UniProtKB/TrEMBL annotation:
GO terms for biological process: FtsZ-dependent cytokinesis. The keyword Acetylation does not apply. Belongs to the FtsA/MreB family. This is Cell division protein FtsA. It is a peripheral membrane protein. Residues 24-223 form the SHS2 domain. Self-interacts. Interacts with FtsZ. It comes from the Bacteria. It comes from Antarctobacter heliothermus.
């Protein structure tokens, strides 16, 4: 477990440096848009508020926000470095201009990169009478890490449950009396190359990467209310090029995955079906799209428009029922894939089976009704939590990832549990402390 935290530690140091300066940028690099929020911290230490990302929203305020069309990103991964770099620069510069301040550090979120979830377990004897940080550190380092394959990197590693002797369900065991401490941990790995491409792209924009998160995870943090995170719920983040899935219970993520399809695929189907450009297809989907046809939709005609120069071609009309007939099969396919992943994760065994739809593509009319039929559970449309200073234009489902990333920046669960592990070799630690004293005093 030692090396799992090395890259996170390096980014944590950058995040702390950014927070000392008081300003950090949030970057949601999606397939359809790049969103940037600039946060100003008021100097309070967020780790004092409690454990995890729902402990409180104090400590920061959004002072700048901007979005731009994403180019060079497909299925949530960087495909064209130059185009993605230009999109990131455009969004960051516009947000900086609104905030009136320069930003050097960013915390980024991305979907895709083939996430895989693992459940780890470990046990360790309690050294003293009460559990302290050293005992927690040793039980974390005792978790057996599986062979997750070459070229993959750990993105999130969070303890979701502690067991002290025969008492399970502990959130924080420190200070309690017991003999044997156990831990259940959730670990999420992603393709290392996808992370490296994104990190390199951000570096080319003259920015320092101060943190990384999965968009499925941070969307769940912002779109699920506290009871849903506690009792068990799934968040389905329907983006442009990928649909993220995360399952929460006891306020911790226990499973994450993604489907390599999203709203852009629906737009592409409309473009092919009606023989129009992608821009025209996006406009038709936004203004007239839907998933449930009624009798009146056969009579409601949509003027397609266009700029080909052929008068008859540009003056074509299509009924809304035909448009729904093009859109519905693709959305059904996405939801069927999500259903398969929920079944594989054992979602049926949770005490509560609430499903929350969020993301830009979740705004298609009729999606909640169709999702209820396919997923067979309680489904609701989710909007992100309100945070201080967030513009009205950034409060829709499409900004769930960006808002969740703000909460993640202020209350990072991964880092809260990052103790110095392991602590077996005391002489080495003593030598390290002596060397530090020597450097500071001479």
């Amino acid at each position: 477990m030692i090396e799992l935290y090395e890259s996170q530690r390096a980014m944590r140091n950058m995040r702390r440096a950014a927070m000392q300066r008081g300003v950090v940028a949030i970057l949601d690099v999606g397939s359809s848009k790049v969103a940037c929020l600039v946060l100003r911290f008021d100097g309070t230490d967020p780790s004092d508020d409690g454990i995890g990302s729902l402990a409180g929203q104090s400590g920061f305020r959004v002072i700048g926000a901007a979005t731009t069309r994403s180019r060079g990103v497909r299925h949530g991964e960087v495909h064209d470095m130059g185009a993605t770099e230009r999109s990131i620069r455009t969004a960051v510069q516009a947000a900086q201009k609104m905030a009136g301040i320069r930003v050097d550090h960013v915390i980024a979120a991305f979907s895709g990169a083939e996430p895989r979830s693992y459940g780890l377990a470990g046990k360790a004897e309690v050294m003293g009478t009460t559990v302290d940080e050293q005992d927690v550190a040793r039980v974390l380092s005792a978790c057996d890490v599986p062979d997750f394959g070459y070229g993959r990197e750990v993105l999130h590693a969070q303890p979701v449950n502690f067991v002290l002797d025969h008492r399970s369900g502990l959130i924080d065991p420190r200070g309690q009396i017991g003999n044997e401490l156990g831990c259940d941990m959730h670990m999420l790995t992603v393709e290392g190359q996808a992370i490296q491409n994104l990190a390199h792209c951000i570096k080319r924009c003259d920015l320092e990467l101060a943190g990384l998160a999965s968009s499925g995870y941070v969307s769940g943090v912002s779109a699920l209310v506290e009871d849903e995170q506690e009792l068990g719920a799934a968040c389905i983040d329907m983006g442009g090029g990928a649909t993220g899935l995360s399952i929460f219970i006891k306020k911790h993520m226990i499973y994450a995955d993604s489907v390599r399809m999203g709203g852009d695929h629906v737009t592409r189907d409309i473009s092919k079906g009606l023989k129009v450009s992608m821009a025209t297809a996006e406009r038709i989907k936004t203004f007239y799209g839907g998933l449930v046809a009624t009798g009146i939709d056969d009579r409601e005609m949509i003027e397609i428009g266009g700029d080909t120069g052929d008068w008859e071609h540009d003056r074509r009309t299509v009924s809304r029922a035909e448009l729904i007939g093009i859109m519905r099969p693709r959305v059904e396919e996405i939801l069927e894939e999500v259903r398969m992943q929920l079944d594989a994760a054992g979602f049926d065994h949770l005490p509560s089976q609430q499903i929350v739809l969020t993301g830009g593509a979740s705004q298609i009319p009729g999606l909640d009704g169709l999702a209820t039929k396919i997923l067979g559970q309680q489904v609701r449309l989710g909007r992100p939590l309100r945070v201080h200073g967030l513009p009205q234009a950034a409060t829709g489902p499409g900004f769930a990832t960006a808002v969740g990333l703000c909460l993640f920046a202020a209350h990072p669960q991964d880092e809260w549990w990052d103790f110095e592990i392991p602590v077996d070799r005391l002489p080495a630690r003593s030598l390290k402390r002596a060397m530090q004293w020597f450097r500071e005093n001479w």
